[in-house]
């Protein structure tokens, strides 16, 4: 899909980006703020052209799917919602779409199959984030139950000769409980306890990178965890979005398809 046509009084060829919102709400709000900040409105002279469609997800379906209980009806319901959202954003003139939820990217093949090739491209956040990790790194992945169970990032990172580890099952269950709370509250107050738990794993496994494979964790804006450099999926997505808005060549663009 081509950049949106200019309205009267608008600069020519300004690009409009779409965001599938509400997955979760705090991650959506943080992504919007980062897109605006990284666009440098004072320097560029204008704010970015962004359309957000906040999905009316059933909370029960989202919680069950993110936790890894991807029963067919929940996956089908969420796929329907994602297809609808891309169509809404396309109608609003978005030429590119951002989805600020790692777990829901597992549904993208089904979404693309139903939309066809004329729909705007949905950036593939996990692929973009995995490519941001230095090849050959030892990586500790922090994500939802579904992301861990599917080994979603594991497959992408091993293609880059990375060694991938996850939390032990008990700690993963505890982290999952906190992530579910992030649907309605900020994790900032809970982060010291999370970091203490992660530090115990860091001491044993000695990763080179901690990958924040859950956008709600990434809303904390961390550049390191327990003294280890952190790479955040949401921060990576924001950087990609601004690169697209500017019409610049994105070295990770090949991963967005």
What does this structure look like?
The structure is a single chain. By secondary structure, the protein is of the alpha/beta class. It has 2 domains: 123 residues, Rossmann fold; 107 residues, 3-Layer(aba) Sandwich (Rossmann fold), CATH 3.40.50.1860. Helices cover 46% and strands 15% of the residues. It has 12 helices and 9 strands. It has a 5-stranded mixed beta sheet with strand order 6-5-7-9-8, sandwiched between helices. The chain has a 4-stranded parallel beta sheet with strand order 2-1-3-4, sandwiched between helices. A hairpin with a 2-residue loop joins strand 8 and strand 9. Helix 1 packs across helix 12 and helix 4 packs across helix 5. The longest helix has 20 residues. The radius of gyration is 18 Å and the shape is globular. The two termini are 13 Å apart.
Termini gap:
13 Å
Strand order of the largest sheet: 6-5-7-9-8
* Radius of gyration over all CA atoms, rounded: 18 Å
- The amount of beta strand, in percent, is 5-15%
The gross shape turns out to be globular
What structural category arises from helix and sheet content? alpha/beta
Count of domains? 2
Element-level helix/strand string: EHHEHHEHEHEHHEHHEHEEH
Could you report the average pLDDT, rounded to the nearest whole number?
85
Strand segment count = 9
CATH topology of the largest domain: Rossmann fold
């Amino acid at each position: 899909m081509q950049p949106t046509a200019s309205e009267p009084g608008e600069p020519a060829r300004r690009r409009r980006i779409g965001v599938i919102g509400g997955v979760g709400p705090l991650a959506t709000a943080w992504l919007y703020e980062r897109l605006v900040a990284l666009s440098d409105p004072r320097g560029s002279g204008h704010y970015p052209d962004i359309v957000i469609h906040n999905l009316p997800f059933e909370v029960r379906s989202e919680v069950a799917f993110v936790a890894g209980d991807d029963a067919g009806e929940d996956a089908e319901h969420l796929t329907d919602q994602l297809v609808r959202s891309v169509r809404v954003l396309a109608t609003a003139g978005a030429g590119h779409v951002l989805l600020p939820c790692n777990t829901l990217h597992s549904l993208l093949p089904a979404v693309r199959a139903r939309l066809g090739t004329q729909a705007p491209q949905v950036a593939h956040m996990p692929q973009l984030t995995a490519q941001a990790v230095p090849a050959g790194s030892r990586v500790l992945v922090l994500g939802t139950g579904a992301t861990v169970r599917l080994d979603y990032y594991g497959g992408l990172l091993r293609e880059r000769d990375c060694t991938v580890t996850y939390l032990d099952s008990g700690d993963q269950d505890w982290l999952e409980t906190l992530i579910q709370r992030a649907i309605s509250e900020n994790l900032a107050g809970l982060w010291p306890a999370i970091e203490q738990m992660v530090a115990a794993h860091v001491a044993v496994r000695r990763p080179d990178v901690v990958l924040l494979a859950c956008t709600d964790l990434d809303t904390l804006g961390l550049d390191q965890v327990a003294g280890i450099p952190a790479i955040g999926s949401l921060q990576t997505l924001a950087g990609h979005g601004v690169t697209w808005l500017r019409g610049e060549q994105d070295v990770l663009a090949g991963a967005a398809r």
